[in-house]
Amino acid sequence: MNIDNLQIQIKTFFGLEAVLAEEIKKLGGKNVEIKNRAVNCEGDLGFLYKINYSARTALKILIPVLTFKAWDESRFYDKLFAFPWDDFMTVDQTFAIDSTVYSERFKHSQFMSQKMKDAIVDYFKFHHRKRPNVDVQNPDIKFHLHIDRELVTISLDSAGDPLFKRGYRKEQGEAPINEVLASGMLQLAGWDGKGNFLDPMCGSGTLLIEAAMIAMDLPAQIFRKKFSFQNWKNYDAELFQKIKEVRINRIKEFTGKIVGYDLDSQMLNAAHLNIEAAEMEDVIEVKRQDFFESKKELFPLMMVFNPPYDERIEITDDEFYKKIGDTFKKNYPNTLAWFISSDLDAAKKVGLRPSRRIKLFNGKLECRFLQFEMYEGTKKVHKLENK
Pfam families of this UniProt entry (predicted)? Predict the structure, then answer.
């Protein structure tokens, strides 16, 4: 592995590729290329540590170490058995494999992971007369197997646990939003920590915490205890410590307000616990409040939220989305509001034309992230006033 010029592949969610590419460029990535649900770039070992610690919309950060073509299982096994695995791990380290397979030849990802595991174990038994152990829950070294038809790519997973696991979530509701998706939505909405932020249906508080992290420029993984790269043979603890210190020195004070409403006491309790775990009790306020009976209290204000939609949480109120639109119009003048929903028919009942529609996925649900711009009076009047 050439630590001065690593080829890096960073996975993200559909629709967040451009957001991630922008983050990677700002962090110093070279030759940044947008792919489907991924961004490729180049950088040195320090850059790899930096993006693991800081990138908000990264799910996995992979370093490809072997690529070959295989037409059957025996060639697949032979190529893996011949690979120098002890360049990347010791026989005393545990390992795990996660896999993605798109192939008519190799249909079962679990079976192919097992074949790869056999090849690694057999390699060490042959060369060292000892076998490494698999640990699915907490491996020292994590490999990623990707098969696209006959093209096989083996990568080192530099993070280990997926990067949406920030370390602050202690409680969650029935349908929590993924932390990476939440941060991506906030960045798509243009939230930069200037002004005030409201999530009027905050649930367990993920959007609130991610909004505060952006506002204060906190590194995405400030609460994370470990990364897989810390078990690599070339791990430079001093370099990683220096990168963390430089990054932490950039944290800034936030002077606005970040507020969450919810009607469910259990959800508010979960939000309190998560906010406390994120050490943000002084930055985020949550309260029991019916959004439909609320009025704008913060100026200027951005609103981003994840309302319930029937596939995830049952909505008993037929007028639910209409009430969202009515509340926007009557009680939140001069506000930029965004929400995500998979219920596109219901979203039409808002009664306002969205100024932007972005396709995203919340889990497996295809959604639209919708922007609504509320003006005092008509849009035309607003434009004339600002000429």
Answer: RlmL_1st (PF22020), THUMP (PF02926), UPF0020 (PF01170)
* pLDDT of res. 386: 44
Enumerate the CATH 3.30.2130.30 domain ranges in the chain, comma separated. Answer: 6-157
Alpha-carbon gap, residue 367 to 358, rounded angstroms: 8
pLDDT category, 382, cuts 50, 70, 90? very low
Render the burial of 114-133: b for 16+ CB within 10 Å, e for the rest: ebbbebbbebbeeeeeeebe
Structure token digits, residue 3: 């630590």
Distance CA 82, CA 70 (A): 14
Please give the mean pLDDT across all residues of the chain: 93
The class of domain 6-157 in CATH terms is alpha beta
Would you tell me which CATH number, out of the four given (3.20.170.30, 3.40.50.150, 1.10.287.1490, 3.40.50.720), belongs to the domain 179-218+228-385?
Answer: 3.40.50.150
Q: Mean per-residue pLDDT for 213-237? A: 97
**CATH 3.40.50.150 domain range(s) in the chain:** 179-218+228-385
Cis peptide before 176 (omega within 30 of 0): no
Q: Which residues contact 6 (CB under 8 A, 6 or more apart)?
A: 42, 43, 44, 45, 47, 48, 63
Query: Strands of 151-157's sheet, edge to edge?
Result: 30-35, 38-43, 6-11, 60-69, 151-157, 141-148, 95-102
pLDDT tens per residue across span 329-370: 999 999 999 999 998 888 899 999 999 999 999 999 999 999
Please, what is the Cα angle at 274 between 271 and 194, to 5 degrees?
80
Give residue 131's Cα distance to chain centre.
35
Is residue 156 classed exposed, middle or buried when 0-12, 13-18 and 19+ CB atoms within 10 A define those classes? buried
